[in-house]
Amino acid sequence: MATLQEEISRRRTFAIISHPDAGKTTLTEKFLLYGGAIAQAGEVKGKRERAAKSDWMEIEKQRGISVTSSVMQFQHGGYCINILDTPGHQDFSEDTYRTLMAADSAVMVIDGAKGVEPQTRKLFKVCALRNIPIFTFINKMDRETRDPLELCEEVERELGIDTYPVNWPIGCGKEFAGVYDRDKRCILHFTDAGHAKKAGITEIELDDPALVDLIGQARRDTLADEVELLGAGRDFDLDAVRHGKLSPVFFGSALTNFGVEPFLNAFLEMTTPPLPRVSDAGEVDVYSPEFSAFVFKIQANMNKAHRDRLAFMRICSGRFERDTEYFHVQSGRKMRLSQPQTMMAAEREIVDEAYAGDIIGVFDPGIFSIGDTITMPGKKFRFSGIPTFEPEHFMLVSPKDTMKRKQFVKGVEQIAQEGAIQIFKIPDSGFEDVVVGVVGTLQFDVFEYRMKNEYGVDLRMSGLPYEHLRLIRECPCDVKDLMLCSGSRVLEDFKGCKLIAFGGEWSVGFLTKHNEGLILDDWLSV
């Protein structure tokens, strides 16, 4: 039997982040391919191709984009790997932010032709806040790309992190033949085995005469010069990598599988086992025998046949055992989690035990919220909260068919509890209309699609002029008696908290000036 320490030490939990279309979901697929979790990889190409494993929602398969974070666990090389594939599109940044709270490191995928893009910067900042290790995979080397040295310099300049190329590409586009492994001091020459299968690798020394036959004299000479130039750069420092100060850089092509296996193996060796988490009682030791976890995601209707709701938990310490009694801190209730599951996107498997670093899904009867803490009975600490983003776009929503009010209410409540789309009631009114607030407008499409396909409700949606939302922390009177400026409205969330939605920032001054004693919070937090 492996000890608790051994089991936790072999866990690797990481998120894959990138700007849309940099190849993040394709790289995730290839990790699963090399890990033996799938026999054939599916490209992300919308309707025409086989849908990617990690894109499990119907709307993802149709559009060829990831709109929700998915979780996949598999074994490879003695490690137990938990991959969190995140949406790249900025409209889903809130889901990505929460997912990054559950990860111990991040793989940043960069398009070799485009370099650092806006969404990459935004996601990188979230990682930098927690100083988690960041590994850079420069993708699409099978196409024409920018100069590799220029790409590394751009990562350093744009993201403010030092880089260390662990390997170096030999050519790009049709000329891309492999990479030079700086640690092994040899060339890994790739042969195409078809996009859905593993690439063949031939290892060969730089001074081996046979190398000229493989890549030609000119490319061999260019490579020798570049390797010499790299030698004059900074040294590799694993400690700096693990503290988020140095990003190891790898080159490859997720589409053709070139460079994926060397990257996966090197990454697993360099990245950290599960990291400790901060609670209101101090830092929680990962290797403590006492189980603790927090909820970072809730997803309804992953299985349409059962209309279920899953709460995704990141285990922070100890060992989880099925059917053991645990304590839900926020409700003060003891509970047995009898059907814990590990994920392969939408496919699941019941588990009897799991360890710190693992992500498990448990059935949610409607008591969990994002940010909740689960501990052993008798322990009442809470992990630090997960902030929510302020919505920037609002719509008034009602069912087209008034006979479907019951399904409308159920769908709205369940999707609101997931937290990615924020839904508000108008105080002292029924559920004829609700106000939906989102960070990015693509979330409206997802909401409308899910209400129709999961709850059978067609929606009537009309835009609202609000741009900001503030929580009412203290109110000197009944909210109905507040003096509001034009274009503002009092709303209520599903926990009963009152908020004010309004247009321009000037409205805050008006509201506090004309309502003495009114205190508004400008940061919403779970």
Q: How would you explain this protein's 3D organization?
A:
- The protein is built from 13 helices and 31 strands.
- The two termini are 39 Å apart.
- Strand 2 (70-76) and strand 3 form a beta hairpin.
- By secondary structure, it is of the alpha+beta class.
- 25% of the residues lie in helices and 30% in strands.
- Helix 11 (405-418) packs across helix 12.
- The strands form eight sheets. A seven-stranded mixed sheet has the order 2-3-1-4-5-11-6, with helices on both faces.
Sum this structure up briefly:
25% of the residues lie in helices and 30% in strands. It is α+β, with helices and mostly antiparallel strands.
Features:
globular; 31 strands; 526 residues; 30% strand; 7-stranded mixed beta sheet; alpha+beta
Kindly report the spatial arrangement of strands forming the biggest sheet.
2-3-1-4-5-11-6
Q: Could you tell me the number of beta strands?
A: 31
- How many distinct helices? 13
**Distance linking N and C termini:** 39 Å
What percent strand?
25-35%
| Structural class by sheet pairing and helices | alpha+beta
The whole-angstrom Rg is 25 Å
Task: State the helical fraction.
Answer: 10-25%
- Overall shape: globular
Q: Mind summarizing the main beta sheet? A: 7 strands, mixed
Pick out the low-confidence regions. 40-51, 63-68
Give the overall average pLDDT. Answer: 82
What's the helix and strand layout?
Elements: H1 4-9, E1 11-18, H2 24-34, H3 58-63, E2 70-76, E3 79-85, H4 93-101, E4 105-111, H5 118-129, E5 134-139, H6 148-159, E6 162-165, E7 167-170, E8 178-181, E9 186-191, E10 200-205, H7 210-215, H8 217-231, H9 238-242, E11 246-251, H10 260-270, E12 277-279, E13 282-284, E14 292-300, E15 309-317, E16 319-321, E17 325-328, E18 333-336, E19 341-344, E20 347-350, E21 353-355, E22 359-363, E23 373-375, E24 393-399, H11 405-418, E25 422-424, E26 434-438, H12 442-455, E27 459-464, E28 468-474, E29 489-492, E30 498-502, H13 506-514, E31 519-521
Parallel strand pairs: 1-3, 1-4, 4-5, 5-11, 6-11
Antiparallel strand pairs: 2-3, 7-8, 8-9, 9-10, 12-13, 14-15, 14-23, 15-22, 16-21, 17-18, 17-23, 19-20, 24-26, 24-27, 25-26, 28-30, 28-31, 29-30
